[in-house]
Amino acid sequence: MEAAAESVAIVLGARGTLGAALCAELPRAGWRIAAALGRAECDIRDEAALRALFDRLRPTAVFNAAAYTDVDRAETEPEVAFAVNATGAETVARAATAASAAIVHYSTDFVFDGELERPYDERDPPSPQGSYARSKIAGDDRVAAAAARHFIVRVGCLYGHGGRNFPSTIVRRLRAGETVRADRERLGSPTWVRDVARVSAALAGTDFHGLYHCTSQGETSWADFARFAADTLGLPPERSVGVPTSALPMKAPRPRRAILDNRALRLRGLDTLPTWQDALRAFIAEEE
Ligand SMILES: NC(=O)c1ccc[n+]([C@@H]2O[C@H](COP(=O)([O-])OP(=O)(O)OC[C@H]3O[C@@H](n4cnc5c(N)ncnc54)[C@H](OP(=O)(O)O)[C@@H]3O)[C@@H](O)[C@H]2O)c1
After folding, report:
1. What is the mean pLDDT of the chain?
2. Rounded to two decimals, what is the model's pTM?
3. Hey, which residues does 187 pair with through a beta bridge?
4. Superfamily, domain 8-161+190-218+259-274
C-alpha cells in the first residue's frame, strides 16, 4: 500500500539500524522525508527542540526509531533508559500531537517474559523482566496516552546492514572466517529491519491506529540462526557452536521464548513479513 503523495515523514533515531532502513524504505512507499535526525541533531528528551522542528516541517507522521537499546547496561543505569524510552518517547508523542502528526513508535518482544508456550499477540498482557523492558513498556503506555493517532510497532531480534545487533554480528563474524558461539536455548524470530520499515510505511499511510506485532514468520534459536547463515554463506555448519544461555555473560534477564504473532497486521491485511529464512537469504544476497 502506498502513502498519499504528499505524506511527509520525520525520522528520529535515523542513524540507528531501523532508522537507516526507514530512511531507505519510506521514499519507496511515496513518503517525502523532511528530516532524518540522529541523536546529535535531535535528542528526543528535548521537548522544545522537537516542538520547534515539528512546527516548522509539519510532518504527516513522525517515525520514532530513537531508543536506549543497551539491554545489559540498562540494569546499571535504569534512570537513563527510562528517560529516553519512557519520558523521551512520551515527549515525541506529545510534540507530534501538538503538530497534528501521527506517531509511529517502536517497542519490543522483551515486554513479555517468554514463558508462554504459544506466540504472544497484541491482547496478551506484558510481563517485562529487566530495566530495558520496563522502560519500553512504560514508553508504549505513555505514547498511547499522549497521542490518539499512534502506531506502536513491537519488533524483536532486528538486524540490518552495518547494525550492531546480535544477528548482524553473527553474519559479519562468519564472513570474517570466525566460528561463532550462539545460544541454543533462547528462541526468537529474527527480523530484517527492511521488512519492518516497509510495513511501517504502509501502516502509517492508514488510519488503523493501535498496537502491532511485527516480526518475521517462524522461530529459531540463535545457534540455528547462525547455522542457517553459515549454510547460506556456503560455510560448514560447524562454524556455529550452540551453547546454553547460562554460558553467555548477560546482565539483564531475557525472555526464553519471545515469539510474537502479527495478529493485528494480519487482520488489517498488512502482514507481508516473510519467513526469517527468506529474509536472511535476501539480506545476505544483498550484502554480497
Ligand atoms: N535491535 C533489536 O533487536 C530490537 C528488538 C526489539 C525492539 N527494538 C526497538 O526497535 C527500535 C530501533 O532499534 P535499533 O535496533 O534500530 O536500535 P539502535 O541501532 O541502537 O538505534 C537506536 C538509535 O537511537 C539513538 N538514540 C539513543 N538515545 C537517543 C536520544 N536520547 N535521542 C535521540 N536519539 C537517541 C541512538 O543513537 P546513539 O547511537 O548515538 O546512542 C541510535 O542511533 C528501538 O525502539 C528498540 O527498542 C529493537
Report:
1. 95
2. 0.96
3. 221, 257
4. NAD(P)-binding Rossmann-like Domain (3.40.50.720)
